């Protein structure tokens, strides 16, 4: 690293390296002495270093001229690996580690190039590197603007006969020289990211070496969704919203960020597209976060159709090689728009001008393992770091966002199509899973050869099994929850499964406690609903499709199922909340929600928000075309607040009411919550550790609730504390310190402690 200090250039030879270990007990960074040929190591570089008598990967988090330790006590890194962490993300990781009471190592690990933790480039990648001859040539070409390799100039000076920019043959063009210099600067680089043909020409002259066979690994595009490509003219509300965003992008107007609160089908995506277009025109880059990318192929396709190759997609279903290539295209500025799920918030883009969060209410933005970050909060932070504008959009925004962001309204569907009427169907006292009204409505759709979507937020066949003789319920051996029956398919025989830990076993033939063979099945999930709808109304002209986590486990199955449903002239799509996510199928005329109050039964302050969102979002799938639509909501709680507001399409009424309630209870956004969970083999140990943590939390402004036992999960007993506070930063500091103090001892006692800031 060359840094200019007082006009002269100094070499910083000490690298502060954060080893990427998962243990909390090891905090870095640690100092290493760089060798002269490692002098161009920069902040963010990925190194392999000797660490605790073995080798570890580490990221350079800082550089220094000298260490507190004498130089002879410092070790040297073994190697510098390609594709480190961009420096702005190193800073972001440091912030995240504090904000989520996690560790720098864990946060940095999220920001590495895909596959980098293996320490090797993906096998299929074709990697180019400058040869010694190439280096000599660059050195001989002088220290003009071309070469940035600091270490090689002195060593190789004078090598290479004749004119510097020749290699015995034709002189290199300026572009070729620049390419060679860039490659030397980056170190070994996937050839495609710099242009393979041009590199091949340099290879023929012995200046570049290219190893292993390279395939083009561009992600496959699925053609879900109509109206790609051409941009429709914006309506007045879209235009107004866009102008406010453009003002902010130009540096004028309010820069606090925007909440695009638009009813379903109001054309929010079109506003994002225009904002991205303006960002690109201004020379900046953009991140577009979408809930789960497999469920939002249409959004991805729209961005790709509009902007072409400048869009890169980071998608967990891509092969590692493909993801690595996309990551490199972003890092090298070849792609300037990144579309992806929550992890795309770490896209290695420079000069970010805009971050879009589509369907900002979606739960998938929260990461559910340490660090338990919220991509929406991280996006706001990253936007602030880059001076970028944040645009979060939803038909059912979180109360938090209505308070923290400027709200822009799209109150109408495009073309002023009405929102579909929502009818509540009271299921109290009913035994059949489908209300008679629902059955009639489905039959109507079938007769008219139309399309319907049916949502049941419960997968599997039956919820649980009991013994008819003694009443035993089949439970997961590792969790305090009932096993769910799954029906056999072409590839698997029937089985029962735990939806918390994934445990599976064969369907019991007899009761384990009384040996009775009479087993009763209770409740219905999506598998059974699919089956019954097939029997009742399905036929070759009216197929039944299903979408849930079991279907989604197959690679590309989600996209295929969505494509098939879209392509079919008529049919029903049955599934869990996945069917409610932002899909734009103009020919769906009926939406049905079964057991709408199911989400209300969770003991969680967000239960109402979630129920409101689920019904509103499902309603949003219906009536997007010329044929209009209607929505039926089956519920045991027809007068529940969330359900009544959703039926009236009254988002403002719901939000106002919800904000009042949350303020009274000091729930977000009126306060922050932090949850601490201790898990151990025995409940007593978990509870006692929770008590020690509680006693260590020194924060007078926070209210600490608990310990409260939780249900057993994956063989571990659990207990939790909940901290409620209006001084978020003070509480985070106090919790972080408490967990650090208790941490090492807890681990020895076999208790693991985890912290969740802003739990979902
Ligand atoms: P939302 O994201 O708000 O639910 P979409 O962005 O999916 O809505 O838009 C719904 C449909 O309307 C899409 O097919 C989109 O191409 C189309 N659309 C968007 N804006 C306009 C417009 N101004 N005029 C006509 N059609 C539009
Ligand atoms: Zn029994
Ligand atoms: Zn389990």
- Whole-number total of structural domains: 5
Task: Tell me the CATH superfamily of the largest domain.
Answer: P-loop containing nucleotide triphosphate hydrolases
Determine the CATH topology of the largest domain: Rossmann fold
CATH class of the largest domain: Alpha Beta
Helix content: 25-40%
How would you describe what is shown here?
With 760 residues, the protein is of the alpha/beta class. The protein folds into 5 domains: 2-118, 3-Layer(aba) Sandwich (GIY-YIG endonuclease); 123-215, no CATH class; 236-414, Rossmann fold (3-Layer(aba) Sandwich); 418-460 and 524-665, 3-Layer(aba) Sandwich (Rossmann fold), CATH 3.40.50; 672-757, Alpha-Beta Plaits (2-Layer Sandwich). The protein is 31% helix and 22% strand. The strands form 8 sheets. Strands 13-14-12-15-16-11-17 form a 7-stranded parallel beta sheet, with helices on both faces. The two termini are 42 Å apart. One zinc ion (ZN) binds at residues 467, 469-470, 472, 511, 513-514, 516.
Descriptive terms for the model:
seven-stranded parallel beta sheet, GIY-YIG endonuclease, 32 strands, Rossmann fold, binds adenosine-5'-diphosphate, disordered N terminus, globular, 21 helices, alpha/beta, 5 domains, 760 residues, binds zinc ion, 31% helix, six-stranded parallel beta sheet, single chain
């Amino acid at each position: 690293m060359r840094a200019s200090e007082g006009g002269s250039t100094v070499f910083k030879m000490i690298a502060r390296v954060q080893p990427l270990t998962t243990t909390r007990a090891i905090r870095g960074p640690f100092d290493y002495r760089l060798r002269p040929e490692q002098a161009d190591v920069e902040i963010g570089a990925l190194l392999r270093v000797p660490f605790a008598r073995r080798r570890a990967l580490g990221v350079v988090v800082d550089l220094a001229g000298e260490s507190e330790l004498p130089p002879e006590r410092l070790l040297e890194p073994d190697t510098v690996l390609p594709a480190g962490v961009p420096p702005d993300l190193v800073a972001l990781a440091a912030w995240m580690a504090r904000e989520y009471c996690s560790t720098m190592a864990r946060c940095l690990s999220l920001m590495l190039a895909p596959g980098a933790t293996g320490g090797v480039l993906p096998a299929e990648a074709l990697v180019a590197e400058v040869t010694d001859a190439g280096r000599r040539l660059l050195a001989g070409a002088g220290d003009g603007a071309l070469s940035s390799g600091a270490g090689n100039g002195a060593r190789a000076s004078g090598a290479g006969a004749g004119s510097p920019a020749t290699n015995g043959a034709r002189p290199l063009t300026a572009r070729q020289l620049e390419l060679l210099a860039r490659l030397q600067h980056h170190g070994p680089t996937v050839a495609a990211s710099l242009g393979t043909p041009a590199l091949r020409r340099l290879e023929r002259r012995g200046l570049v070496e290219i190893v292993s066979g390279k395939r083009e690994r561009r992600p496959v595009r699925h053609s879900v969704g109509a109206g790609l490509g051409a941009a429709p003219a914006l309506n007045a509300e879209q235009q107004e919203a866009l102008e406010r965003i453009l003002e902010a992008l130009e540096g004028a107007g309010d820069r606090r960020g925007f909440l695009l609160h638009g009813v379903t089908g109001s054309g929010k995506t079109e506003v994002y597209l225009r904002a991205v277009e303006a960002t690109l025109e201004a020379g900046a880059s953009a991140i577009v976060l979408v809930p789960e990318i497999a469920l939002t192929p249409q959004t991805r396709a729209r961005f790709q159709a509009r902007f072409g190759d400048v869009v890169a997609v980071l998608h967990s279903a891509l092969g590692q090689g493909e993801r690595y290539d996309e990551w490199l295209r972003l890092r090298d500025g070849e792609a300037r728009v990144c579309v992806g799920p929550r992890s795309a918030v770490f896209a290695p883009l420079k000069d970010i001008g805009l971050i879009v969060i589509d369907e900002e209410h979606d739960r998938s933005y929260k990461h559910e393992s340490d660090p338990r970050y919220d991509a929406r909060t991280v996006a706001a932070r990253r936007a602030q770091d880059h001076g970028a504008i944040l645009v979060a959009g939803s038909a059912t925004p979180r109360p938090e966002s209505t308070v923290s962001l400027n709200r822009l309204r799209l109150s109408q569907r495009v073309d002023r199509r009405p929102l579909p009427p929502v009818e509540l169907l009271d299921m109290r006292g009913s035994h059949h899973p489908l209300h008679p009204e629902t059955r009639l409505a489905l039959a109507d759709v079938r007769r008219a050869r139309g399309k319907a979507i049916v949502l049941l937020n419960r997968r599997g066949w039956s919820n649980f099994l009991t013994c008819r003789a003694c009443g035993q319920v089949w439970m997961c051996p590792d969790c305090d929850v009932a096993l769910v029956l799954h029906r056999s398919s072409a590839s698997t025989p029937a089985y029962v499964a735990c939806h918390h830990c994934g445990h599976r076993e064969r369907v019991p033939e007899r009761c384990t406690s009384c040996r009775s063979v009479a087993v009763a099945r209770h409740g219905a999930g999506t598998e059974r609903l699919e089956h019954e709808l097939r029997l009742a109304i399905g036929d070759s002209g009216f197929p039944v499709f299903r979408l849930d986590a079991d279907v989604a486990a197959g690679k590309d199955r989600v996209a295929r199922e969505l494509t098939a449903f879209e392509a079919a002239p008529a049919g029903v799509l049955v599934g869990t909340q996945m069917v409610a996510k932002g899909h734009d199928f103009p020919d769906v005329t009926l939406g049905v929600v079964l057991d709408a109050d199911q989400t209300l039964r969770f003991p969680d302050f967000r239960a109402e928000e979630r129920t409101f969102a689920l019904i509103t979002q499902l309603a949003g799938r219906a009536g997007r075309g010329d044929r209009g639509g209607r929505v039926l909501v089956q519920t045991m709680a027809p007068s529940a607040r969330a359900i009544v507001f959703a039926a009236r399409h009254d988002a403002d009424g719901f939000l106002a009411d919800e904000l009042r309630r949350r303020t009274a209870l000091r729930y977000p956004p009126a306060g922050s919550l932090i949850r601490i969970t201790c898990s151990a083999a025995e409940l007593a140990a978990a509870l006692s550790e929770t008590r020690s943590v509680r006693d260590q939390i020194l924060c007078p402004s926070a209210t600490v609730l608990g310990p409260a036992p939780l249900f057993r999960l994956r063989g571990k007993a659990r207990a939790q504390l909940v901290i409620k506070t209006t001084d978020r930063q003070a509480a985070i500091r106090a919790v972080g310190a408490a967990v650090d103090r208790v941490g090492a001892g807890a681990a020895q006692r076999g208790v693991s402690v985890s912290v969740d800031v802003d739990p979902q």
